[in-house]
């Protein structure tokens, strides 16, 4: 497990590396909205049933011909609008356009960024928090002065049409932030990180087929061969998610000298309303300080935290200087947390998806 501490709130050592500062945030969801009442009839679910178990009221679908890079571009354009040029791009995703090459270089070209370093970050639903840590490293070493980090997933391409347990939860979307080098004393600075993983439970969240494991067998005997769909063991995932996010959040809060009472806004990976509530309760953070975006967009994977931040700021729930805690959990297993004081910056929430071909 990686534990990267920086500074207590408001204190910076002259010899400390440059801090990573969140400068801008934006989000995007495609226009096709699927409510609980519009879910397949053979799933035999109702709006009340889905909301009571997951907190999800609707989710958005990318639709035919729309890929992860298309959604990522829409969020990125909004985050970059009027901003200074970025010199590195990170894309957190579990649904790349192709197994290889990475999607980020093509995204950088579509955005007109030139020959900047660009690569994917693969940590499933923890990808955005991992991406923040990677971006902080690029800034601290001087490898970049300004970094664009996008979290985007099109989970609808991975879902088994017969699997209602995943189908009722997951949606498609993208969120993006612009990061820059700055001081740990200014609003927007990421003050500390906690990252971890446990590959011993990799099978709890998995797409069994499509990788080198199944391809190497080549005779139909490999476990999972022929199953290209997303699989998740819900009850076990729930337990691990609550424990890992709670422990990770506590470690990063301790590192910067905050408690749950100090947190003005808690934004966890939007996995399931029961998970969010359980983690918040264990941290001592009241419900009114928690951002819950599930009712509108569901679980959007690596996009969930930046998209929730963008929508929360658009709704006036985030104000400059507030203490914000971010935590995530995903397949791998992976988890991570970070804290910051929120910057005073505008945010653009996406209009309807007009053109996926650009």
Automatic annotation (TrEMBL):
Methyltransferase listed as a keyword: no
Reactions catalysed, as given in the entry: malonyl-[ACP] + acetyl-CoA + H(+) = 3-oxobutanoyl-[ACP] + CO2 + CoA
UniProt keyword annotations, A-Z: Acyltransferase, Cytoplasm, Fatty acid biosynthesis, Fatty acid metabolism, Lipid biosynthesis, Lipid metabolism, Multifunctional enzyme, Transferase
Keyword Cell inner membrane set for record: no
Annotated metabolic or biological route of this protein: Lipid metabolism; fatty acid biosynthesis
Catalytic residues in the record: 125, 269, 299
Domain of life: Bacteria
Subcellular location: Cytoplasm
Domain Beta-ketoacyl-[acyl-carrier-protein] synthase III C-terminal: 253-342
Gene3D superfamilies: 3.40.47.10
Pfam families: ACP_syn_III, ACP_syn_III_C
InterPro entries (UniProt xref): ACP_syn_III_C, ACP_syn_III_N, FabH, Thiolase-like
Enzyme Commission designation: 2.3.1.180
Ranges of residues in domain Beta-ketoacyl-[acyl-carrier-protein] synthase III N-terminal: 119-199
GO molecular function, a single term: 3-oxoacyl-[acyl-carrier-protein] synthase activity
Any one GO cellular component localisation term in the record: cytoplasm
Coiled coil ranges: none
Annotated stretches, region: ACP-binding: 270-274
Functional note: Catalyzes the condensation reaction of fatty acid synthesis by the addition to an acyl acceptor of two carbons from malonyl-ACP. Catalyzes the first condensation reaction which initiates fatty acid synthesis and may therefore play a role in governing the total rate of fatty acid production. Possesses both acetoacetyl-ACP synthase and acetyl transacylase activities. Its substrate specificity determines the biosynthesis of branched-chain and/or straight-chain of fatty acids.
Family: Belongs to the thiolase-like superfamily. FabH family.
Quaternary structure and interacting proteins, as annotated: Homodimer.
Protein name in UniProt: Beta-ketoacyl-[acyl-carrier-protein] synthase III
Source species: Streptomyces filamentosus NRRL 15998
Organism classification: Bacteria, Bacillati, Actinomycetota, Actinomycetes, Kitasatosporales
Gene name as annotated: fabH
